[in-house]
Queue: 4 jobs
Job 1
Amino acid sequence: MEYAANTADQNLALKINAGIEELASHDRFAHASPDMVEAIVEGIGQFTAGEWAPLNRKGDLEGAVLANGTVTLPEGFAAAYRAYVEQGWNAIAGDAEFGGQGLPFSLAANVMENLGTANMAFGLLPILTVGSIESISHHGSAAQKALFLEKLISGEWSGTMNLTEPQAGSDVGALRTTATPIADGEHAGKYRIKGTKIFITWGEHDLSGNIVHLVLARTPGAPTGSRGISLFLVPKYHVGADGTLGGRNDLRCVSLEHKLGIMASPTCVMSFGDDDECIGDLIGHENEGLKAMFTMMNSARINVGSQGVQIAERALQQASHYARERIQSVRAGSPGKEPVAIVEHPDVRRMLLRMRALTEGARALLYYTAGMVDRGALGIEGALARADCLVPLIKAWGTDVGCEVASLGVQIHGGMGFIEETGAAQYYRDARIAPIYEGTNGIQAADLVTRKLGYESGAVLTALLADAARDGTAYPELVALTQDCIEIAEWMSTTASLDDKLAGSVPFCTMCAVAVAGGQLARQVTALAGEDTPQSRAKSVVTDYFARHIASEARGLKASATAGAELLYALDAAALAG
């Protein structure tokens, strides 16, 4: 099956949910004219379909390979990445001072969506680079910006984030990697880095000229826990004061993880300072590493939420194609006796419509979030706080959507979906990592109820939900869901214990995400009202299904969201796990 970017729905989401035309009315984003937006959406769609999508299956079958300390990708990846860099796609939202195009993050999100839909594993490479750019831009010194930003923004160099250690997992405060100050010599003022990091996405590869690792470590005498963590810039190759590359730094990939999916994305175990000569440069101030890293994490979490949309779109396209082509059985109740394409059977239609509603709902939420990030960058009052509230929704629910839609895609293929040759299984395998990395979805939900819920004493989240209710006025199920969410938020803010809030956090996060996504779909329907086009007719049906089925199901989570933690602790640990 040939892949084609869903540019029609992307353009609609950019216009209605991100509000790209309103963004372009501000001087900072004045270049995001309708012609420019259309050219970018069409251009990246064609590029990814032609250059990256054909490598998706090859990457899954052959994967990344580590030999003699060097990681190589299958044939074709280097040329495809080079074309990506040369055409300027990595620089869409980069600072113009360092060679970027200075366009809205919403357009960069569109680039990322198309890259990942074409090839999710490959699309992780620019996601990590964008995060590195964010951290250095916000917290780096003038010298660090001058040396690294231009090459990272162009994509000539790539970036990583190095948080996780074998003994620490998601508890970043338990890390043991050390950073010792260097008092004299050519590296005076820098630090010797020593430690091991695991699960480092694209930590070693042969596609970019240098890899800029952002590494969390502890300086001597630093406070225990997360308060004593600092962030360091550790390049694969040393960079001279004039920007030229020097010798290899003392770091290496010691192994690649053997994974369920995303085979073409090298997930590395990285060792720093085996010979005590790994040199790193402090970003920001000592003991403020998490602050700098979370600048990177917010961007990454939105882009991982996008991965849910990406894998859902790809699985939907494949399942739709198969359903139209696969002839099997007479349709129930039909007077004829000829078998029909399975797309004619009610349950297959149910699955396809559900896949489409979830995918388009998640896309609408993605671009709404991206638009709020852009408004926050413009300094528009309230936008940054709203964007912060939206991040856990798109990351958690968006990636859950990816898993569900990919699973339904396998189901539509029937037994052939369980056979690797059809390719449907790859999307299911690839999708499963997204709810785990960049903070598990449970961590996202905990962030929502312990931090974001408290913004302005709950007013930020309540206003977001009230707007969703207003946008979804024509859909009673959406209005009722938003009211449920507001009631739960009030209970969590005034009555629930911390354990109670955390016990109900995941269903509450899902409910809020569905409510806001539904409101954004309703906005699309309103915008298309009066048109009699295939897009307007389909959007009306998809949104109606979303409200009647997905929003109604989400309302059923209220009991779980408010059940409290008592039952979770009715058994002691030994009895529960025994």
Note: Residues 256 and 268 are 5 Å apart (CA to CA).
Job 2
Amino acid sequence: MRGKQVHRRFGWDTHGLPAELEAMRQLGITTKGQIEAMGIGAFNAKARESVLHYTQEWQDYVTRQARWVDFENDYKTLDVTFMESVIWAFSELYKKGLAYEGFRVLPYCWNDETPLSNHELRMDDDVYRMRQDQSVTVTFPLVGEKAEALGLTAVNALAWTTTPWTLPTNAALAVGPAIEYVVVPAGPAGAANGLEGDSARFLLAADTVASYAKDLGYPDAAAALAAIEPRRFTGAELGGIRYDQLWDYYLDAYGPEAFQLLVADYVATGEGTGIVHQAPAYGEDDQVTSAAAGIPVVLSLDDGGRFLPQVPDVAGLRWDEANKPLVQKLRAEKRLLQVKSYEHSYPHCWRCRNPLIYKAVSSWFVRVPDIKERMGELNQQINWVPENVKDGQFGKWVANARDWSISRNRYWGSPIPVWKSDDDAYPRIDVYGSLAELERDFGMLPRDEKGEPNLHRPYIDELTRPNPDDPTGRSRMRRIEDVLDVWFDSGSMPFAQVHYPFENREWFDGVDGEPGHNPADFIVEYIGQTRGWFYVMHVLATALFDRPAYKNVLSHGIVLGSDGQKMSKSLRNYPDVSEVFDRDGADAMRWFLLSGSVIRGGNLIVTEEGIRQGVREVMLPLWSSYYFFTLYANSADYEAARRTDSSHPLDRYLLAKTRELIQEVTRHLDDFDTPLAAAALRDFAEVLTNWYVRRSRDRFWVGDDRDAFDTLFTVLETYTRLAAPLLPLVTEEIWRGLTGGRSVHLTDWPDPAEFPIDTELVRTMDRVREVASAGLALRKAHGLRVRLPLDSITLTGVHGPDIRPFSDVLCEELNVRRVIFNDSARGEDEDQDNIVSRRLVVNARALGPRLGKDVQTVIRASKAGDWEITGDGSPVVAGFALEPGEYELELTSSDANLAIHFLSGDGYVVLDTVVTPELAAEGLARDVVRAVQQARKDAGLEVSDRIRLTLTGDADAVAAIEAHRELIAAETLATSLVSGEAGGERRRSAMPPP
């Protein structure tokens, strides 16, 4: 509609653990061993089948929700063209020195037997869940020359850990360099671990002694603090002291540098003892600290998280099952000072929802820290919506970027294109970035059973060749078994979807100075993708192209279930989408999402009432206006024309208002702010239906007012084009009904220059509408139906545009005899001034935090009337200026017959609610008109059909009918009217033609 072509290719994310888990569920298997027993080829065929199983359902769903998507020219991450671009990207990173193999501690899912990237732990809040574990404090007797020199021989260092299962691989203890440590002997009750004599002395941080008083044998914290020995030590002084190892499972494996106190900056005293147990294989900080001291990594668990035979006491047990027997062993050996239940926020696998562990694994990494500065610079070129995400959640994540683990020891995914020599005596590594390179070196391509090139396992694994660096000719080059992290696929999407760089290079990069399609103009996903899709695309775009992956990104909030929790199929806490589509329509759901706070980064609770609200506020008013137009246009047999030159005040107001609407909606959509665009369309629907159409009924009734027909046609046609992106289905139906054209979505976007400018008229009419709305609100609040006429409404202190010329309009809208203008803010009408007063009510809860104890002074002054309104409309109370939200102004009246309503900015409306017998009779007559009109509709009559009308009722009703016979006949198109009491004499008369 704006003259740009948008390629809406549907994309399928097909690889990764979610697809594998679904295949395993369908096959009834649970372990990697079962996968390998059935064969990788058979398993991957099942994974492929599972991800494509719901293809038609997806196509039906997307089409039903009115997404304009090309399914015929879609792309899938399992396509060989996509995968070739992915291995090209890896190859390029390797050439740049940004891809490397390392042995690091990573978040590890023992259930899925694969590591995760750190960013996967930060995508969603529910990755971290509260969990109860055991924390233990264990004794480590200090030994050796340095311990003796410091007088610490046989003193027990108290180390704290929340992972007792890692104690079999204890390699060191860590202390903070500036933390103060003290020695405390066992108290009168004896230490909890049962040690006695000289051996019952304990080393811990001074800040933590009080919390260990009972465990150390003291009656209270004061007694424990008083027992601290005189000499104190900093952590820096304690570095290098040796201790007796806990167990000897891995005594030889750790080497000579193990079992000493290491100094580490990360140690703190907020929890525990200020001395931290170190297991290099199961803690990121542990590994770094231990590696610096020359202590190797030793693994005690297999890939499934179960203990190896080297730890016979718990061999075969899973890590969490081993805690209890290990704690019992500590207690039996008098090494356990304290055991507690420890509740903490703990990471879980976002795919299988099991608790993770940290485990040292061999993995390939991308050196993101090497490019994070450039990533930060390129981030400044991106337009983020909301704007605060740029330097907030995304910017901070980039600034603290860590190496990205990109390899997974799984099966269904793009292969890591690395071949290694199978003989360490002749080391060699080859990395491939294309099918052509593979065919060049291996003399063939990996092909599946159909003979087609296929980069999946096991076909890619079958490519081997002699090692060129081995003169014996015995060793071979074999591919490493790992596949790439599925997030690598996601980050490659911008270029891999078009098989770059093997095809579409000019389309992607541009040519002869003309820009290409990289960066993308616009992408959208939820806020968690700042650490997922947005992030990995930015990493690869920076590393490969030195430019952003996207120009504009809308990072919306999270859509929650009706209970405020994350949507869950098991909880059934959200309305069924198909039912919503069938009952309310896809447009209703689309409007609900695009008009809500979720687009601005807030969370959105999905409720059926919220979805239906858009139907009531926009869709029904729009359809009602369209139906009204077609009803009268067909009745008059009139074919409307597109015109914007009517001079009628209502027409000119609506046309000028439409110009403003075009400008406003265009501006908001250009800013990616669909909630404000939706608000503008919603407000205009109110103007169109409840003001213009209602105020113009008589003009359409006559049937020959070309200006009215043409204006309504023009505005409806324009409105449907403006609303088409947000309401694609209902606007299509209306636009085609209005114009007979092919599709509203193939038209040009409206041009505001086509419509007149009349700022003064718009301001004036908007003020008239506001006054009318206030008057109607007063009627509703006092139970006075609109068909009941009232005497008057008074406008007091209303400034701005002069609305006196529209007094007749207000009389008709509010069904009052007269409109009284009282221009003075305090009232020129002294009688009214005496009965209307304003009262200031202070919101203490809102004002209290700002004023503190002075809020009571303000409250007393407001009650005493010691306040005034300043020139900007805000109140000053006892010298304190109040801000919006800290107060309310209420109008009160001593006359119960007056109803009062504030207007925005200034002034108020006073409605006389007295109902005289004369007014009541006219109101009854208008009720009769309404009843007859409903009867006409129920009888299926056309709007122009004439009727003969007979009315009966009680004496009061008949009197009211007789007093307003001409009104009733004219409104109902009655050619004759007979009235009378039931069973009594009736009065008949012929009526003049309406």
Note: Residues 438 and 926 are 87 Å apart (CA to CA).
Job 3
Amino acid sequence: MASGAIAFGVVGTILAIVQAAAAADLLRALIMRNHQPVLTAAIVFGLAAIGRTAVGALGDSAAFAAGAAGRRRLRSETLNRLLSIGPSLLRQGHSAQLAGIVVDRIEALEGLFARWIPAAFLAVAAPILIVIAAAIADPWAALILAVCGLLVPVGMAVAGIGAAVASRSQLAAMMRLQTRFLDRMRGIGTIVLAGQAESEAAALRVAADELRARTMRVLRVAFLSSAALDCAAAVALIGIAIQQGELILHAAPGAAMAAQSGRALFLLLLVPEFFAPLRAFALAYQDRGHGAAAAEALIALPAADPSAPSLAEAPVAAPITIAAHGISVAFEDVRLTWDKARGPALDGVTFRLPAGGALILAGPSGAGKSTVIEILLGFAKPDSGRVMLNGMDIASIVPQALSRLTAWISQKPVLFATSIRDNIRFARPEASATEVAEAVRLASMDGFLAELPQGLDTVVGEGGYGLSGGQAQRIAIARAFLKNAPLLLLDEPTAHLDPATEAEVFESLKRLAVGRTVIMASHSAQAHLLNGRRLNMAAGRLLSTDQQRGVA
């Protein structure tokens, strides 16, 4: 991935040696007052300088491309892993942490691919090339250069260990600040009403100051490695200057002195070129620290299920081909535990629902109703037992097919900051205007749409800002009508509605349920309007006496 940047770096080093040799020839010719060699040396020096500039630009471009490609691949793989795990991942971490991993932590790997990898290779290859060139001119000068170069990694290692620790702490502080800021922004209304705006602002200020202090600590430690490198470079420069000065003083006047002066200039010009890749390596070392801290966060993410089938592996009889008149659902001794300290979320749940049937899961909060819905959505996988759709294990159905099979309406539908029309069409972007209009009619949205300034084209805020709870639920119902999926999952769809609005929404849900298999988790007394079978749950168990029997 970084091979292009490395190749350009090696070529740049070779051109630097050529440029130093041309400068030495130029000095030698000036001392001897030979005009033709002066012109030749000047042309070679100029061409080498132009070549180094071009190669440097190309190297920077290749490094940027390598960094962009590496981040793009990692971000794609991370997003695929998060999507394959599903929303159940939010039970293990905050959404701000996940967003920080996908955005900031992967962005922190840019320096690893663009700078650290090329610098690590060139920190070895370029000094070797320069020492070889110096050894041809003067072995003792090359030895001084090599010894001083070998001292650099020692100082860099001491500073680098501290920089890595400081970088890890700095990224952790940044994640804490991101999480705190997102939480406070989500609850800004509650904070203001509670009169805690000033105290929360002060707490955010403290967290920001902590991040600033940790960031400066990273830079302070990083500067130590630069100081060690500068010290080694100064020692090498002084040592070679003294050694070459002695040789010039003992050289015979004339051609011998001119040759020795040129050789001395060549060696002195090689000193900064020798330490330049080591300096780049030192500067990139903190990129390695950032990369290591970011990689730890990526490694900590749960791995995607390797047994999950891909589209290419989808069986011929996959339920994606089933018509929208409903599908059968069966739970066979399903058990799932989110947190062992809190006990099982589902403990041996068994039931069977025929195609086109309706099932109402009732019970107190924490009984396991929503967990049943999450398993059917593919957001969670049982620890044991089987979940069957039309006789096919849900684990064998590819996620894309399972998504097309199901329509889901939750307590608070997810609405985007765009028009109502686009929010409905989100269920099926390719739907025609006629199909959208029919979904709107079936969801009984005509009444409140007539009161909006632009009807379906009215723009709403993120999360449905500007709409009532009942209006937002009708948009979710219209989505479900437009999707026309055979399996309808309802998770407390009327939890926050007043009785009158709740009754209206249930009327729309009754129309939506016709010809579909419906499973609803609800506390509502109005749930019986769906005319479905009722199963009571508590502590992850079914309490109904007919829980083991299928529905005719």
Note: Strands lie at 329-336, 346-353, 358-362, 384-389, 392-393, 406-409, 487-491, 517-521, 533-538, 541-542.
Job 4
Amino acid sequence: MNFIHTVKNESPFWDAIVIGSGIGGLVTATQLAKKGAKVLVVERYTIPGGSGGSFKRKGYTFDVGASMIFGFGKKGHTNLLTRALSDIGEECETFPDPVQLAYHLPNDLEIAVKKNYEEFIADLISHFPKEKEGIRRFYNVCWKVFNCLDAMPLLSIEDPAYLAKVFFKAPLACLGLARWLPVNVGDIARRFISDPELLRFIDIECFCWSVMPADKTPMINAGMVFSDRHAGGINYPKGGVGEIAKKLVHGLEQHGGKIQYKSRVTKVLIENKQAKGVELANGEIIYARKVISNATRWDTFGGEGNTRPLIAESSTPAAESKWANRYKPSPSFLSLHLGVKEDFIPKHSHCHHLIVEKWDDMQNEQGVAFISIPTLLDPSLAPEGHHIVHAFTPSSMHEWDNLSPSNYSTKKEKDANDLISKIETIFPGLSQGLSHKEVGTPRSHRRFLGRHQGSYGPIPSIRLPGLLPMPFNSTGIKNFFCVGDSCFPGQGLNAVAFSGFACAHLIGADLGINPWSLPE
């Protein structure tokens, strides 16, 4: 198939086209629109947000992905979701969560990560008293990383002018941050801690948001997550996680931008080694000065068996082969969206839980179970007298592909029941209180989210030096950019929001529309 399209020599209608309405793409679009650019977002599905969206069923509002949200703090520079909305005149009302996560681990290890930092540290020390000094020294390093991040406006480190300005404003923070870029969490944890089970706990602390153990998790990311949960805290948006995307779309439209649903991009138009626009599945061609892909790297450039990427192999930059050798798709998930009678969830339960029955199963198929009950924070998400239980467990596409319809249905039912059994170790008898049950598989995620293999995002295929090998927003194709979890700094809503800020700043510098001064 010939992906190269000869583009007519005519002025583009849009300054920028963003492919996909995930949070990273929407932050890019809104930041550019706020600066005066004419921006179009093209989304293949009928609602915005991607895995950060929500959907409704029989009076329930379910989050597509996780509901443990960072980035809604009120102070500093790491509250990226707050900033992204505020910049376009929007705001999400939120409910603070006093506990980030309740861990249910082997050997009856039960730890609740409270917002109050000293209470969390005291609890951890009570389980590992011989590691008192090591625990404090490890998490103190996390605070050092966080404080460096929180001292500077987080924009594109590909823009030399920005780097010069931010270094002038916060030289010590810049130097401190540079120190941690090539470092992984495991390196620091083993420097201070020797207890094998405590090191396993640090592994699951990383895995719960990066889907990687400590040895493969960048210290920059951990510093943000392990500290922001105590600084800005975990705050759930009223109305569900999908409200973030809805408000970003509203802000985009208020600033002259547009989103076009049911519009699947099949190729990026390339001429003379530069992007000129996109072609949709219906044959429509849309031109733009800049094109931004919020799709995964594999959906954008191919690899890992993807035979229909947005960019033809003949136009793919050589640097992308380095990416393909360093990273692989993480597993997707088996997801359960349950409606449950409120009597089966004790009133003072924690909102978020994680279950590991055997340490050796942590990285195995369906080895970890995540549970979220957002109605403990926002009861309006469910009919009166009911709760939502959203549970998910990592599951690879190869476990689900090539199944006959009957075998697929059988596996869905069996695996869903197995996951419900795990939930019942915390909430006994829950299966007797179900009023709604919906099962999603990696195939569901691939179909509805348009993500290669339904993947959560990239993970290192080999041990890498921190964030240094992670690609940024620019690509080897002129006027073509990437944004989202396949770019620095990786997975999570706050991380992809960072990617969106960075991408919009880089494009804004090229278009000459960035303000001279840094954000306050």
Note: The two ends are 49 Å apart (CA to CA).
